[in-house]
Fold this sequence. Notes:
Blueprint: E1 2-3, E2 14-17, H1 30-45, H2 51-64, H3 70-83, H4 91-115, H5 128-137, E3 142-149, H6 150-159, E4 170-173, H7 182-192, E5 200-204, H8 207-215, E6 219-223, H9 235-244, E7 248-250, H10 258-263, E8 274-275
Parallel strand pairs: 2-3, 2-5, 3-4, 5-6, 6-7
Antiparallel strand pairs: 1-7, 1-8
The structure holds magnesium ion (MG).
Amino acid sequence: MEVLRPIPAGETKAILFDFDGTISLLRAGWQQIMVDFMVEVLVEVAPHEDPSKLSKSTLEFVTELTGKQTIYQMFRLCDEVRKRGGEPMDPLSYKHRYHELLMDAIRYRIEGLRSGRYQAGDWRVRGVAGFLEKLQDKGIPLYLGSGTDQEFVLEEAKLLDVDRFFPERIFGALDEYTQFSKRMLITQMFSQLELRGTEFMAFGDGYVEIRDTKRVGGVAIGVASREDGEIGWDKWKRRRLVSAGADILIPDFGDAFPLLDFLHRPEPVGLENSQS
Length: 276
Ligand SMILES: [Mg+2]
């Protein structure tokens, strides 16, 4: 665990979790699939452009928009097509095509979980179920918010046996994309639960949820998880999370249990810039 900024102890009244990359590894590898798909679209309108450069700049904007609903990445793809003098398809069609490609790549995981070939824990971020259980025991309401479509988040949370931690509190993207965003969910939580800044905490591996959390004065825990099955930091995610403003960084939940004491410690703890 790495503490970048002191956070007040014992104030947490509600916690929001991101799903993909924070709890779930079912969609691990989605970034590459999205980038490859987009580069293919762009190369068609700009055959003279260097695909490896396109790939780099595409990864850049895909990453920056990670955490927002997927449709926003497709809006950006449309802009990039237009910038090159092309006529983009409807963003929703791009999104569906991308989703088909992603599903082709990860179907074996979902089917493997259904058939019992895999255990739920095989596709969860290390230690997350135990951590959620402890949070639930403390009586802190937990929310799940994802930029992935709601129907898939519900299904995948169930397959990973984590839906029980978020009764009636699982939120995902809607086709009517203006009807849900993480920012809207956070605003709703603040008004319904009458939260003040640091009473709100969020865990996420993406840029957007960290920024949205800091915008309302909440506590942001960046999860720099590796999605390749290895243990340790994803250094690239770590850098992005630092620049987004995360207060605390963890590589996964395996060593995050000290955080739990911290949540209910009566006196403020002036943690300094140090690693523990
Ligand atoms: Mg994520």
